[in-house]
Amino acid sequence: MQIVVDLTRCQGYAQCVFLAPEVFQLHGDEALLYTPAVPGDQVERVRQAAAACPVQAILVGEE
Ligand code: F3S
Questions:
Q1: Tens digits of per-residue pLDDT, 36-61?
Q2: Paired sense of beta strands 31-34 and 24-27, if any
Q3: In the prediction, which pLDDT does 28 show?
Q4: What ligand 1 atom has the least distance to the C-alpha of 49?
């Protein structure tokens, strides 16, 4: 699984950080760091994070 976060959409709601803290980290209000290549054991958490993001900023690609 590959992900891209549209940082122009991200408003720092941090649902992703809460649901998948090993993939998403928030620095400050809007500086979101993330792991683009999601490890297999994090895939389900990332799916939940993508669904939970209020502005649909997390784009999920399957491989
Ligand atoms: Fe941003 Fe959505 Fe996460 S707004 S901080 S990508 S929950």
A1: 999 999 999 999 999 999 999 999 99
A2: antiparallel
A3: 79
A4: 7
CATH fold, domain 2-61, is: Alpha-Beta Plaits (3.30.70)
CA 63 to ligand 1 centroid distance, Å? 22
**Closest C-alpha residue for ligand 1 atom 2:** 53
Domain ranges of the chain: 2-61
Contact criterion met (CB below 8 Å) for 23 and 49: yes
What is the distance in A from the centroid of ligand 1 to the CA of 47? 13
> What is the complex's ipTM, to 2 decimals?
0.98
Q: Is the CB of 31 under 6 A from ligand 1?
A: no
**Ligand 1 and 23: CB distance under 6 A:** no
- Look up residue 11 and give its DSSP letter: -
Q: Is 22 helix (H, G, I), strand (E, B) or coil?
A: coil
